[in-house]
Amino acid sequence: MASPPSMNLHLDWEGGLRFSGNVGETPVQVDGDAEAAPSPVKMLAASLAACMAIDVVHILGKMRTPALSLGVDSRIQRADNDPRRVVQVTMIFKVGGDVPAGNVQRALDLSRETYCSVWSSLRQDIELKTTFEVVPA
To answer: How many CA atoms lie within 13 A of 119 on its CB side?
Structure first.
């Protein structure tokens, strides 16, 4: 059995709360102040919306009821106190085309319950390991 896919990520501090780097070969920027780039939580929200949207488009195509267009609007609610975690996500999917509502609901359910790796990764039982190295200046 093949091992699960992994990814490599590298970020360099650019000053302030800004970082840039790569996820694999893809450039990425993040800004804790959300001025020069999305904040980490905004990136998380975009990743969740994109993951589910991709699943829905793919699943509807497999159902032979492809969407002609798909948009998603998300509202993210965060806790008032640190760590200000995400406590609620509301997503509104706008599916264009002659797609039965039941197929859209089924695609959303499958994404949430089975396929969306971002949603599944937001669980509290994720093992987080950290290590560090001090590099002399």
So the answer is: 20
Please state the pTM of the whole predicted model. 0.86
Q: Is residue 134 part of a domain?
A: no
Please write the tens of the pLDDT for every residue from 7-16: 899 999 999 9
Q: How far apart are the first and last CA of the chain?
A: 45
Residue 88 lies in a domain: yes
CA distances from 84 to 92, 94, 123 (A): 23, 29, 16
pLDDT digits (tens, 9 = 90+) for 38-62: 999 999 999 999 999 999 999 999 9
| CATH number for the domain harbouring residue 83 | 3.30.300.20
Contacts of 46 (CB under 8 A, 6+ apart): 38
Range of the domain at 111: 39-121
